[in-house]
Write a sequence for this structure.
């Protein structure tokens, strides 16, 4: 079995990674989604695997296929992702790279919605999804290191720093997903790592290189803080 004989600074560690978008059903044939490709989360899972970790990879319906050598759990909706994350515990670290839908369709229809012939449009009602990152950050069996992401279009560092406080996670990887940056759906990323000691801007790098840097930091942190 892959992983059992893994060597590297993360051998013997179990790390949970979430990735991709979620889809929220409107009816059996329609859904609400977002533009996450799953590329950054997939690269992070591969980088952690390369350092010897056993990786549970909980992924929404992403464009990018899951990496080999990780335990893949496929989900569709945010509610399914929350349940899969709960099932994956315990873990030494969690990296929550998924673009989880903030809202589900509260009045989703069990059968295909039909035009009624009057020209009237259906009214979609939304309900807020549970915040998976905030929930695991405050759980009794919390991983020693919880890393969140913050997708922002404005005031990236200020918003992400506030998000770190609000959610109770240890680190936040903040990225600017403004349309002009080409990051959402692209092959590069320009992130700022926010930790307890402040904000560290990283250069614009391939998503693979960003992932390797993050995996190295996680390995160093776990080695320093855990036997
Ligand atoms: N996240 C989550 N569960 C949710 C929403 C978000 O676990 N229901 C996680 C994401 O995986 C990410 C982090 O929270 O690691 C931040 O996601 P983001 O969308 O940037 O933040 P939100 O708290 O949803 O705030 P907003 O979208 O309003 O800026
Ligand atoms: Ca959100």
């Amino acid at each position: 079995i892959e992983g059992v004989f893994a060597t590297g600074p993360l051998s013997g560690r179990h790390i949970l990674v979430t990735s991709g978008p979620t889809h929220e059903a409107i009816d059996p044939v329609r859904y609400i989604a977002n533009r996450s490709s799953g590329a950054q989360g997939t690269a992070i899972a591969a980088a952690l695997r390369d350092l010897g970790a056993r990786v549970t990879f909980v992924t929404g319906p992403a464009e990018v296929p899951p990496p080999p050598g990780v335990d893949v759990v496929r989900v569709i909706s945010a509610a399914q992702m929350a349940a899969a994350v709960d099932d994956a515990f315990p873990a030494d670290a969690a990296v929550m790279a998924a673009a989880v839908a903030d809202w589900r369709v509260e009045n989703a229809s069990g059968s295909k919605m039909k035009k009624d012939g009057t020209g009237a449009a259906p009214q979609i009602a939304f309900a807020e999804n549970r915040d998976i990152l905030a929930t695991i950050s405050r759980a009794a069996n919390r991983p020693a290191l919880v890393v969140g992401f913050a997708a922002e279009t404005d005031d990236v560092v200020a918003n992400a720093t506030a998000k770190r406080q609000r959610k109770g996670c240890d680190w936040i990887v903040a990225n600017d997903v403004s349309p002009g940056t080409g990051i959402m759906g692209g092959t590069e990323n320009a992130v700022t790592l926010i930790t307890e000691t402040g904000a560290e801007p990283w250069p614009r790098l391939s998503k693979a290189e960003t992932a390797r840097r993050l995996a190295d930091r996680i390995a160093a942190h776990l080695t320093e803080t855990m036997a």
